[in-house]
Known about the structure:
- Helix content is 56%, strand content 9%.
- The protein has 21 helices and 12 strands.
- α10 (421-437) crosses α11.
- It is flat, with a radius of gyration of 56 Å.
- The two termini are 59 Å apart.
- The model is unreliable at 1-19, 166-177 and 375-400 (pLDDT under 50).
Amino acid sequence: MADFGDKAAPAPEPATHSAVEPLSESEATKVALGVLSGNLSVNRVGSSYNLSIQYRSKNPQRAAQIANAIAESYIAEQLEGKYDSTRRATQWLEKRIEELNRKQKLADEAVVDFKKNNNMITADGKLVNEQQIADLNSQLATAHKQTSEAKARLDRIEAVIRDDSLNATTGPTVADTLNNPVITQLRTRYLDLFNREASWSRKYGANHLAVVNLRDQIREIRVSILEELKRLRESYLSTYEIARQEEQDLEKGLADAVSRSQPINQAQVPLRDLESNAQNYRTMFENFRQRYAESLQQQSFPISDARIITRASLPLNKSGPKLLIVVIAAVGGFGFGVAVGLLREQLNCSFCTIEQVESALQTPCISIVPSLKSDKGPTLKGSPKLMLPFDQVFGIGSNNQRTISRDPDIFWAVLNSPFSRFAEAIRSIKLAVDLNNGAGNSRGIIGFTSSLPQEGKSTIAASLALLVAQAGAGVILVDCDLRNPSLSRRLAPNAEHGILDVIAGRMTLEDAVWTDQSSNLTFLPAATNNRLIHSCDILSADATRKLFENLQSRYDYVLVDLTPLMPIVDTRATTGFVDSYVFVIEWDRTTSDAVKHAFRDAHNISENLLGIVLNKADINQLSRYYPTGDKYYRNKHYGQYGFTG
């Protein structure tokens, strides 16, 4: 498909020929083609198959005429080219069809001559000798069957005659199998006399004259039956001889037919080659005839692949409407962009401000924690990072090798950069914990959870524990995420024993905890490499509750890293020993629907919430959500106190 148009713009006409002598026809044609190609522009429209034809001329009408004429000439040339190629193809097909027709006739004649020379006669597509052999085979099978039946009847009647001759007291059993009216009648009389003889023998005695007469009659009937059976035997013998003679004749005829067909069968091999060659020529001839008919149809009705979508029209000479259109388009585009931005902001269901959290969840937001990179944390201006001893950096200590790992990580940002915005956000969480539990020695057991994985609850829990430990308070951090103990993999990667061993009574608490000498932090890892099926039952057991009661009596702060609410039910099983919960939400990622769905089945947790923490906040993006955001969220004023992001 092609799109043809024109663009007329003022352009200098070519200089007239100044020669005194007039140009020849070929020279004038070259000059005209040069002018045409110089002012003609043909471009593809985008990534489509449309073409745009533009011609520049001082005369707009002439420019439109030339553009339309070029488009029409292009279509006409396509039609002419198709017609010419189809005509040449048709001529070639005609010659090829004539050649194939001649070869097909020669191949058919070769098949006929070969059959004639080899005395091969066909009927209904089959050789006569093959049909004859098939008929003889069928007749021979029938003769075999008839001979077998006649032989069986003859053998049976001979057996009956032989049995009757040897045992004169046995009744003629052949009457049950032979359909002979004489034997049937004699059999009937025999059975009647036999029954009367038996009856009279019981009544009058076996030697009575009437009984003796009956026995004589029975004997005569048996003799008559035997004579009739012998007559039938002669008949069956004659039938058997005839059937056997017919069978022998058919076998001889079949053998003669097979002997005569052997030369013909040998001649069938070259015959099949000749027939296959003739069939191939016949198929090629039919295919070429069909292509010839299609070529004639295309030659009669050529169809072009291109068409004119829009004909060239006169261009607009005034620039006022164009400028107005540009201005309107710019204003409209700007308004559309603003509308799309506002619409996206309205449709954004994630949490970005404290007001959104408190309005949607009716729970105070106790801190907004900025995002940190995992390879380095924020630092204080003019102050180096805290330098650690070699043994602490690589986890080598005196407490039975159970020293918390101090690999560079965002967990230690609160210690490495104590005056950073991240550390200040963790301090606000500690202040909320202290104010919630009053002035007592124990701040209760605080659980850290979230709605989805990867929202940073473990980082918040570890950072708060380090901050409290650095302040000198007694704190223990417990990893109760038994399904995915990521905190244990970070702080105690080589731990072989942990909270499960303490709950089961296999190990004391002192032998299972890990410590950090510089901050006095105590950590109880999960230390499990197997996937636990009934982890919620372990957390809800009495032994677990007693363990945390012991921890609460020993430490000022007991911080527990729990599982997310939505995929795992373990957190709901901790309400028996956890006093309050800190719920971590990832900034501009976790939606309100996800948080509400997490709280829907965990009412006991939502009722004991200490507050919400917005984690991984982008401070530069956060300032857009507040009219005075520059005062609070940018480093311009925050840095006056010596802090850095």
